[in-house]
Structure formats: structure tokens, C-alpha cells
């Protein structure tokens, strides 16, 4: 039985997920029910007839056809071949077992063999399954037959033959009630176990059991409190219903706990496998480092050996030549016999060099190379001690957390972190970062050691996302990595400038700080004195200020902050040839925003301002960012209002003639438009009423100091 039960997976059709019925062997050696093969092929035929719609894929509730298989099927009808009703025109069959298109050949289903062996095994499995739950006849001689009926009056099960014998026609037993085979023989009337002829009709509340009237009159329940069966039925049913309702109400909670425990089991198993994998990877890295060091050391020793052997071999050859000095001396003596001066000098000069060299070699002997390799002995004692102390992460070190509010990305990245316990338990921190690139399969982290809790990272690519993480070290023990934080760099190099306090600067309405990094409009007496026309309109004034540095070419980015209380601020760019027009235009504008006589809100000054401005500006104020009115902009005014970011940025591309306005915190573009960059472009700002603008400070070297408080 165990063997039969264990092979159930092998007896399931991959198409209908039920036991095989007349299985056919496909060319790929997978088995599919004969009925399933026909349904799949007919489903394809219907799909092609309907144009391959998705709804046609569901022509059979038992079979689900993949769209990818439909795209690959071959509908070309071969000439000269007559297809039967069971063989669709397509010669390819999508096997549900291997998900491949199988060529059934010209005969289609008729060319497939039935798997009689598999049919036999399936039948044996069915018989074993039926035998495990079958109810046998109680009256058959061994071996008993499977019962077909159960008599509720006799409380017994019978096969067909035994039932006829024990319930002959025309007798009282023929009147018995019979049902299908069962082992649950329930009596029609519940009788008292103590008084077998009496029916139970009361319920003892003390003993909590049904009783008859004789039990109450003179039996063991004579002095007990009893109630009628109908009352007990109603009371117990109400209690049971309430208890069931309570259990049902808590069922979701229990299921949630079970689900949570299942997740914890899977998580524990997954984390253990991951920990083993990470441990294996760590040791593999050590093995890799050791193998590299080993290879480098062996290469160095081999190179030194070759050099030394070459020197010694050369010296051997030199001294080998000394053994031939006798011939050299004889040759020299013959040369001395030469009487012609010119011939003698020609030969004797080279000969004298050889004689001199041999003479010097004989005077002093010194090996050309050392034979010892003492310089190549490696001291690994320190490394052995470190490996001996190798252990897992210590729970004593807190996991640092990168503070996203204090961290920022501008001209450089300032990464700040802190420990949850506010204690500096680590001696040193390691900050790692890498550029997010979908094309790179292997991530290479850049590592920086930091003695404090913040670090400035330079040389980052523009318009790119970087992931940062940090961990603490105390001796050889390290904490786990912190959660990765992703920051995006500005879309262009950062452009640095200050507010210009000379060109058009109105010190009566505007106030600059000494560093010229912030400007504030003063809604004071000048505005009040000019409000004499308040009864016929709203007196407004815009005070402009520009940057002290211009941009002639390239792509640049700068950021600033607008105070939350600001009523109206306009920001953008202005070309040099329109600066004079900007500052000499009329500042005082009468706007019919509200007139008592008109009684309506025209809003016409918005169009007036947009059309009359000599520069490209967007409007900010009252904690809103207003998208300018353009043909492509939404018509609904509320749709053009965005929440004002805490930090805004402007990206000017002079080469393309475009300017973009960004949420500098997320480096997300809010609005972009074309701009005339024919001249030198300057950052421009306009303020009205109570408003203030603060330029974003560049990340400078002072943040590199080891200081916990930034």
C-alpha cells in the first residue's frame, strides 16, 4: 500500500490533474489522457477559428492553453493529407508535461500508442484506494465481498446476494430501511440505557445527560433538576451556537498566527540557508585571497630562481672558457710571431681583451648570485591569529542607521548615520556605496573607513542613483550592515553663486544676509504707503534679485529653499540682454483681483504677469508650486498646484535651450520648458510681501572632520 500510495504523483495526468484514463504516449515520452489530447487539439482548432482570442483558450474547463504555444503552432495544412475529425490541421501538439511543441506527425492522435502498462498500474492503484475505504459484507464467507447496502434496522452491511438471503421478499425484513454502505448505524429512536423499553424525553441538568421518566420517578435522577428535551435542545443549541460564533470570530486570528508561524518557519529556514551561503562565500573569498597570494609568492620565487640560475649559468660558461686558456695562450703565442705591424695590431687588440678578462677572473672568485631564498620566507603568525579569532557578527554592536534627513546629495554626497542607542559602541565605521546600474551583474562596493558618524563622498556621476550602507567595527568584531539608502545625484554639475547686491538690488524692500546666501522681502512701510488704492484694487509689488555669476554654455544645476511662510516667490532665469528691462519695468501693478463694484475674481493678473515677464519664472507661495499656464498644462487650477518641496532646484541646459524645475530632495523634475539662451543666463528671483529664499550651501570639506554633531 505504501508503494502504491507513493507513486500517486506519477499517475496524475499533467493536463487534467486527475488519474490517467486511457493514457497515450507522446513522442516526448510524456503521457496524457486520450480525452485530454482531443480537448487540447480541439481547443487550438477553436482558437484559430476565433482568431486566436483569449476567450477561446478557455473552451475546455479542464485544459488551460498557453498563449505562447498558440503562437508557435503550425497551421499550414499539408497537401494531399486528409485530416479526420479527431485530428486538427495543426501537426504540433503543446505537451503539458514539458511545455514544448511536439510534432504528432500526419496521423495525429491515431499515430500514438496507448500505455497499457500505465493503465494497469492506475487500475491497481484505484483498487487499493477502494479497498482502503471499502465496507465489506458482514455475512459473506471468506473472502468477504464488498458490501452494496447497509440495513439501518439490522445495523449490518450486505452484498447483493447476502441481502437477498437475509431479507427475503414478502417478509417483515423486506420492509427494513436500507442505505448505501456505511458504518454509521444511527437508531431511529434514542432509548434509555437503563430502561431499554423507555424513550428518553427529559434532560438532567445535574448529570447533563438525557433521561427517561422512570429515571426521574425512582431512579438515580429522582432528586435531580430536569427539564424537557425541547427546552434543553433550545438552550444547548443557543450556547453551542454562541461558542461556535466565538470560535469562528477567532478563526481568523488563529489562522493569522498559524500563517505567521509558517512564515517564521520559512524565514528561519531561508535565513539559515542564506547564513550558510554567506559564510561559504566569506570563506571562498579568503580562499581566493590566499590563492592569489600563494600564486604571487610562487611566481616571485620562480622569477628570482630563473634570474639567479641565468647568472650562475653565465658564470659557469665564463669559467668553462678558462679551461681553454691553453689554446688561448698558444693562439696568442702564434700571434706574437706576426711581423707585419698593421696585421698584428688588428688581431692583438681583441686578443688582449680576452687575455685581460681571463686574468681578472683568476684573481677574484665571487658567485654571480645567492643560493639562499631567505628573503622569500613569509611570516603568517599575525594572519593565523586573526583567522583564529574569526567569528560571526557580535550582537553587542548596534546596527547603525543612516539618517536620511541629515544626509543630502548636492555637489557631493554627505552621508550621516547614528546608532539607535545613541552610544558610540564602535571604534570605526565602514561606509560602502555603489552606483545602481541594471546592466551590471556583479555589484562592486566602494569602501571608505570613517572615524566619525558622517562622511563626504566625492566624484559621483551626475544624474545617477547610488546606494549607501554602513557598519561598525570594534576590534575584529563587526555589526551587520545597515539598511541601504538610495540617493540620486543632481542632473548636472552644481553651479555656485551668491545674490548680487549691486545690479538692481533694492535695499528698501529686500534684505540680504552678510554672506549673500539668503534674501528676505520686507513687507513694511513701502508697501503700506503704496496701498492708497486699496479700495479700487490690490496694490502689489515684485522685487527682483539675480545671481552674481552668469552661465554662457553647458548644463548646470543649483538649489535653494523657500521659507514656508512666503506669500509669493518667483524663480527662474533671465538673459543678460533683458536684465535692464527686468529692473526698469513697472514694479507697481494694479490688479482687479477684488473690486467691490465688480463682485468677481477675475484672475487676469496671472496672465498679465506671465505674458509681461522678460524672463522665464515659475510661481511659488503659500506652500504650493504652481505649474505655469501652457497649452499642455491641465486646465483645472487645482491640478496645476503641487505641494512645495522643502528644497527646489533649477537645471539650465544652455546647449539644448531648456530649463527644468526640480524637487531637489528627490531630484525629480516638476516642470520643464524651453528658454532663449542667446545671451549669458543669470539665476533670477522675485519676492512679494513676506517671503524669503535661502541658497543651498555646497557640501564642503569641513564635514570630513570627525564630528558626531553636524
From TrEMBL:
| Compartment annotation | Cytoplasm, Cytoskeleton
According to its UniProt entry, one GO biological process term is: acrosome reaction
Residues annotated as domain Fibronectin type-III: 399-492
- Which InterPro entries is this protein grouped with? B30.2/SPRY, B30.2/SPRY_sf, Bbox_C, ConA-like_dom_sf, COS_domain, E3_ligase_FN3/SPRY, FN3_dom, FN3_sf
B30.2/SPRY domain residues are 477-704
Record bears the keyword Iron: no
Q: Pfam family of this protein, just one?
A: ANCHR-like_BBOX
Recite the UniProt keywords alphabetically.
Answer: Coiled coil, Cytoplasm, Cytoskeleton, Ligase, Metal-binding, Microtubule, Repeat, Transferase, Ubl conjugation pathway, Zinc, Zinc-finger
Q: What CDD domains does the entry give?
A: Bbox2_TRIM36_C-I (cd19778), FN3 (cd00063), RING-HC_TRIM36_C-I (cd16756), SPRY_PRY_TRIM36 (cd12894)
Q: Where is the COS domain?
A: 336-393
Q: Does the keyword Zinc-finger apply?
A: yes
Residue ranges of every copy of the B box-type domain listed in the record: 187-229
Principal location class? cytoplasm
Q: Which GO terms describe its molecular function?
A: ligase activity; ubiquitin-protein transferase activity; zinc ion binding
Q: Name one GO cellular component term.
A: microtubule
Which family does the entry's similarity section mention?
Answer: Belongs to the TRIM/RBCC family.
Name the PANTHER family on file: E3 UBIQUITIN-PROTEIN LIGASE TRIM36, E3 UBIQUITIN-PROTEIN LIGASE TRIM36-RELATED
Q: What is this protein called?
A: TRI36 ligase
Species name: Tachuris rubrigastra
Amino acid at each position: 500500500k505504501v508503494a502504491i500510495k507513493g507513486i500517486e504523483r506519477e499517475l496524475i495526468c499533467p493536463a487534467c490533474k486527475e488519474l490517467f484514463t486511457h493514457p497515450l504516449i507522446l513522442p516526448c515520452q510524456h503521457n496524457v489522457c486520450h480525452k485530454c489530447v482531443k480537448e487540447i487539439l480541439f481547443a487550438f482548432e477553436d482558437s484559430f477559428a476565433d482568431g486566436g482570442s483569449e476567450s477561446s483558450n478557455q473552451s475546455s474547463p479542464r485544459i488551460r492553453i498557453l498563449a505562447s504555444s498558440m503562437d508557435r503552432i503550425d497551421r499550414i495544412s499539408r497537401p494531399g493529407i486528409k485530416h479526420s475529425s479527431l485530428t486538427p490541421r495543426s501537426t504540433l501538439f503543446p505537451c503539458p508535461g514539458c511545455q514544448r511543441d511536439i510534432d504528432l506527425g500526419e496521423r495525429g492522435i491515431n499515430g500514438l500508442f496507448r500505455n497499457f502498462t500505465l493503465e494497469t498500474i492506475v487500475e491497481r492503484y484505484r483498487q487499493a484506494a477502494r479497498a482502503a475505504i471499502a465496507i465489506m459484507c458482514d455475512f459473506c464467507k471468506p473472502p468477504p465481498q464488498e458490501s452494496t447496502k447497509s440495513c439501518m434496522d439490522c445495523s449490518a452491511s450486505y452484498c447483493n446476494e447476502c441481502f437477498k438471503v437475509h431479507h427475503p421478499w414478502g417478509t417483515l425484513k423486506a420492509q427494513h430501511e436500507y442505505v448505501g454502505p456505511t458504518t454509521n448505524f444511527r437508531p431511529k429512536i434514542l432509548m434509555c440505557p437503563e430502561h431499554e423499553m423507555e424513550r428518553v424525553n427529559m434532560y438532567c441538568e445535574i448529570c447533563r445527560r438525557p433521561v427517561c421518566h422512570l429515571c426521574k420517578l425512582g431512579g438515580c435522577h429522582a432528586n435531580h433538576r430536569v427539564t424537557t428535551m425541547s427546552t434543553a435542545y433550545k438552550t444547548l443549541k443557543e450556547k453551542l451556537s454562541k461558542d461556535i460564533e466565538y470560535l469562528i470570530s477567532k478563526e481568523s486570528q488563529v489562522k493569522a498566527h498559524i500563517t505567521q508561524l509558517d512564515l517564521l518557519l520559512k524565514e528561519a529556514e531561508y535565513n539559515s540557508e542564506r547564513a550558510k551561503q554567506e559564510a561559504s562565500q566569506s570563506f571562498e573569498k579568503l580562499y581566493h585571497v590566499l590563492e592569489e597570494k600563494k600564486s604571487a609568492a610562487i611566481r616571485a620565487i620562480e622569477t628570482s630562481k630563473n634570474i639567479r640560475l641565468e647568472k650562475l649559468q653565465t658564470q659557469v660558461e665564463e669559467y668553462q672558457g678558462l679551461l681553454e686558456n691553453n689554446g688561448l695562450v698558444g693562439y696568442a703565442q702564434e700571434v706574437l710571431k706576426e711581423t707585419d705591424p698593421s696585421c698584428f695590431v688588428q688581431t692583438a687588440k681583441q686578443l688582449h681583451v680576452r687575455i685581460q678578462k681571463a686574468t681578472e677572473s683568476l684573481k677574484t672568485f665571487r658567485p654571480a648570485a645567492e643560493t639562499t631564498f631567505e628573503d622569500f620566507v613569509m611570516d603568517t603568525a599575525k594572519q593565523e591569529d586573526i583567522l583564529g579569532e574569526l567569528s560571526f557578527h557580535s550582537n553587542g554592536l548596534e546596527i547603525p542607521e543612516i539618517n536620511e534627513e541629515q544626509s543630502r546629495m548636492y555637489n557631493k554626497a554627505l552621508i550621516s548615520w547614528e546608532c539607535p542607542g545613541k552610544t558610540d559602541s564602535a571604534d570605526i565605521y565602514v561606509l560602502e556605496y555603489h552606483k545602481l546600474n541594471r546592466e551590471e551583474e556583479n555589484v562592486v562596493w566602494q569602501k571608505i573607513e570613517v572615524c566619525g558618524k558622517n562622511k563626504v563622498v566625492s566624484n559621483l556621476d551626475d544624474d545617477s542613483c547610488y546606494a549607501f550602507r554602513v557598519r561598525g567595527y570594534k576590534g575584529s568584531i563587526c555589526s551587520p550592515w545597515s539598511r541601504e539608502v538610495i540617493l540620486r545625484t543632481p542632473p548636472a554639475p552644481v553651479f555656485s553663486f551668491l545674490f548680487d547686491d549691486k545690479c538692481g538690488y533694492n535695499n528698501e524692500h529686500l534684505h540680504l544676509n552678510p554672506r549673500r546666501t539668503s534674501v528676505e522681502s520686507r513687507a513694511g512701510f513701502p508697501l503700506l504707503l503704496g496701498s492708497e488704492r486699496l479700495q479700487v484694487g490690490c496694490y502689489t509689488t515684485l522685487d527682483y534679485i539675480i545671481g552674481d555669476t552668469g552661465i554662457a554654455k553647458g548644463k548646470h544645476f543649483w538649489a535653494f529653499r523657500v521659507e514656508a511662510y512666503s506669500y509669493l516667490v518667483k524663480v527662474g532665469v533671465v538673459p543678460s540682454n533683458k536684465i535692464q528691462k527686468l529692473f526698469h519695468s513697472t514694479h507697481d501693478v494694479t490688479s482687479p483681483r477684488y473690486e467691490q463694484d465688480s463682485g468677481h475674481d477675475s484672475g487676469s493678473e496671472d496672465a498679465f504677469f506671465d505674458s509681461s515677464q522678460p524672463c522665464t519664472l515659475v510661481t511659488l507661495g503659500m506652500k504650493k508650486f504652481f505649474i505655469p499656464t501652457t497649452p499642455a498644462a491641465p486646465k483645472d487650477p487645482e491640478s496645476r498646484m503641487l505641494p512645495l518641496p522643502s528644497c527646489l532646484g533649477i537645471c539650465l541646459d544652455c546647449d539644448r535651450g531648456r530649463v527644468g524645475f526640480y524637487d531637489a530632495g528627490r531630484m525629480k523634475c516638476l516642470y520643464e520648458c524651453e528658454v532663449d539662451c542667446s545671451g549669458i543666463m543669470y539665476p533670477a528671483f522675485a519676492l512679494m510681501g513676506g517671503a524669503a529664499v535661502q541658497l543651498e550651501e555646497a557640501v564642503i570639506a569641513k564635514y570630513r572632520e570627525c564630528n558626531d554633531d553636524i
